[in-house]
Every structure is written in C-alpha cells, then in structure tokens.
Design goal:
The structure holds two protein chains of two kinds. Chain A has eight helices and no strands. Chain A is mainly α. Chain B is of the alpha+beta class. Chain B has two domains: 44 residues, no CATH class; 144 residues, no CATH class. Chain B has a four-stranded antiparallel β-sheet with strand order 3-5-6-9, with no helix packed on it. A four-stranded antiparallel β-sheet of chain B has the order 8-7-10-11, with no helix packed on it. A three-stranded antiparallel β-sheet of chain B has the order 1-2-4, with no helix packed on it. The termini of chain B are far apart. Classes of the chains: A mainly alpha, B alpha+beta. Chains A and B meet through α2, α3, α4, α5 and α6 of A and α1, α3, α4, β8 and β9 of B.
C-alpha cells in the first residue's frame, strides 16, 4: 500500500489481481448485470487508486477496503438507477466460475473461508438470513425490507441483530470451523 | 459511567448499511458519544466484511482489468502533469445563493468567499476532459472537476484538514429540489489536498457541493458549503 500511496501503478495492479475476482463477484451478486458489475468495479478501483493515501490499515484489511468500495458503489448505482436485481442473478455469459483446482495456499485459505461463511449464512434461520441478504446484497433499508416483507420495522431490526449475532458465534467458535 | 441508557440498538442495521437517512444521521451522532455502540458496530462490521465471501466467485473479465489499469495509468499521468506549477486564474466573486439549503446557512456568518475559476479545455491522452469549474470556498482553496468517460473526479487543494469526528461530504444538486447526499465522504491531506470520485451519473446535476459534516455524513447539510462547483 505504501507503493500505491506513492503512485506506483504496478503495485495497484497487484491489488487488482488479488482482489479483482471477489470484487467483481460481489458487484455481480448485487446488481445481476455483467456490464453494470464491470462499471461498478471499475469505478471502485479507480476511486481506491485516487484515495490510496487514505487507506488506514488499522481499520481493516486491503480486501475489506476494496469490498467496501465496491459495495458502496453498487448502493450508489441502486439509488441512481433503481436497479435491484441481485436476488436472482442471471448468468449472462459468465462461465468462468472459479471452481478449478486450487493452486496456492492462499487460494486454499480463501476457499476455506468462503465455505465457512457460506455455511454459517446457510445455517441461519431463513427469516434472519433473508433480512441480512436484502440489506447487504440488495441495498434495502430496514424500513424498505419491513415494507417488502410486511413486517414491523422493529422485527426486521431484531432479525438483523439475531442473525449477525449467530454469524459471529459461528465464525468465531473454533468448534464450528 | 453509563452511556447506554438511550442506545437505539441500531448497530446491526448500521453495519449492514440499512439505516434510513435520518436514522443514520442520528445514530452517527450517537456513536460519537457511545463507546458501547462503537464497539458493537466494529464487531458487526467485521462480520459484514466477510459476507462477500459467501457469493459465487467469478473470474473478473479480462477487459475489466485492462480498463481499470488504463484508467489508473491515465490518472497517474494526469497527476504527474498536475504536480507541475499550476497555471490558474483566481477571480473574486460575490457569495453564491444557496437555494434548497437550510435557512440557517444564509444567516450564518460568512468568511471571505473566494472563487477559483479553472478553465481548462481539451482532451488528454487518456480521454479525460477538464471542464470549466467554479469553486467557492470559505477559505483559501482551489480545485477542479475532471470528467472522463468512466468517471468524474473532484480534486481540491489547500482546504482545511478536518479533525476526528468531522468529514467533508459531497452533495449533488439538480435544477429543482434540494441538494442530495452522496456516499462520497473525504478528508484532505495535511497539505489540504484531496481527490475523490464523484458518482458517475451526473445527468441533470447542476451543482456539486461540499460541506463539512460529522463523521459518517448526514442526510441534510448542517453547515455552509465550502465548495460549490457549477456543472452547467
């Protein structure tokens, strides 16, 4: 990051190579359109390039920094264009799923983490998982979710809290790993 | 000392980005005073940051990598060019009217307002276009708006660096209606420099404004704008 801060484009290229796939996957999951996902990721990375000097490692990893930027850009796109198609993602030509044989220890670790997160999310009661997914991947506010699901806003907030609390236990409890 | 007697319990929704604008502003204020909620937010945000790992993983299209790096290299060239001594013209203007902003702004004490007019015309090798931008500031400062095919950028110089708990927030104003908040929050370096991306959909936007706000931003401006860029 120090090199990026100094304007080293090659160092930034390394960041894209390390995090570009998960960034694109998140954008695609959220918006459901390949072209829009590409726009979102491009906006996010160029924004990160220009704000590299403001990266604060005490506030999270580079991956979190990248994914937060992608998430924020996708939410901006939702608000701008009223696009919310992430719930059922159409596969418009995306055939390069990352399911090939693993090659590096880093990839093994990432896939293991992804599996644990998927399992923890999948283990949540459906009503709690739904409000978390609508909020994070769908970009809906809790009041919008309440309206969508015909629930009191307090119930939606309660389900968010319960769901995240269970995720925390599942992802930090060594027994569940 | 108890700090939790009035906690709204919004940490989960805050971490998920699911608070409405008014709630977000209120909870952001609450966070400044409540260490319990701050810790809870940090804990939930750490969880939220791993949620992207749960989605099906795809290979980023090769063209995307090329496009990103082309933009980055073009920006690096622009920065190097901008590092040379600038040739700009400073023209003092009268204070701008601020339709749509709170009446309190108008009555607030005003420091000297300087306007920096930056008029640069032409296309760079990277396809970036510098358009005429008029920047208003309550203190000495300068800036410009840079538009390109893929994004729009606001670059500022010599603004006051903000302390903890404060941020610059970017607002978009159209011909009608009040200024709308964006997710673009930033601070400047110790030398007062900063560069942020503006939302790409600026169709119909007539003014880009910047105000100083509490950390986390607000849904409505709470202070006078320090910068106004007229796009039209």
């Amino acid at each position: 990051m120090d090199l990026v801060r100094d304007g080293d484009t090659r160092a930034f290229e390394v960041i894209f190579d390390r995090h570009g796939n998960v960034a694109f996957s998140l954008a695609y999951r959220m918006c459901g359109r390949r072209a829009l996902a590409e726009d979102i990721v491009q906006e996010a990375f160029t924004s990160l390039w220009r704000s590299g000097a403001r990266y604060d490692r005490t506030r999270g990893s580079v991956r979190s920094w990248v994914l937060s930027a992608v998430h924020n850009r996708a939410i901006d796109a939702f608000r701008r264009d009223s696009i919310r198609e992430g719930k059922n993602v159409p596969d418009d030509g995306l055939t390069e799923r990352l399911e090939g044989p693993t090659r590096t220890a880093e990839e093994v670790e990432r896939r293991d983490e992804a599996r644990r997160v998927r399992e923890a999310l999948g283990a949540l009661p459906g009503d709690q998982r739904k409000v978390i997914e609508l909020a994070y991947f769908g970009g809906f506010s809790h009041s919008e979710i309440a309206e969508l699901l015909g629930l009191p806003a307090g119930t939606v907030k309660g389900r968010m809290r319960l769901g995240l609390a269970k995720l925390k236990v599942a992802l930090t409890d060594p027994v569940s790993l | 000392m108890s700090e939790t007697f009035s906690c709204p319990g919004d940490a989960p929704a805050y971490a998920l980005g699911a608070l409405d604008d008014a709630e977000l502003a209120a909870f952001t204020r609450h966070l400044r005073a409540c260490s319990v909620c701050r810790e809870e937010v940090e804990s939930f945000e750490a969880l939220v940051h791993v949620l992207p790992m749960s989605v099906p993983q795809y290979q980023a299209p090769r063209g995307l990598r090329r496009a990103v790096m082309a933009e980055v290299r073009a920006d690096a060239r622009t920065r190097r060019a901008a590092a040379r001594p600038p040739v700009t013209a400073r023209t003092p203007l009268t204070r701008p009217s601020l339709p749509g902003f709170r009446a309190g702004w108008v009555g607030a004490a005003v420091a000297v307002v300087l306007v920096l007019a930056v008029i640069t015309v032409g296309l760079t090798a990277g396809g970036t276009r510098h358009i005429g931008a008029r920047m208003y500031a309550a203190s000495v400062g300068s800036g410009e708006v840079i538009l390109s095919r893929s994004d729009n950028q606001l670059v500022v110089h010599h603004l006051a660096p903000l302390g903890p708990g404060r941020t610059y927030e970017v607002w978009l104003k159209r011909a009608t209606g009040s200024p709308q908040p964006t997710s673009v929050l930033f601070n400047v370096s110790a030398s007062g420099d900063g560069a942020v991306d503006l939302p790409s959909g600026l169709g119909g936007v007539t003014e880009v404004m910047v105000t100083q706000e509490p950390a986390g931003g607000t849904a409505r401006p709470t202070s006078q704008p320090v910068l106004i860029t007229h796009l039209s």
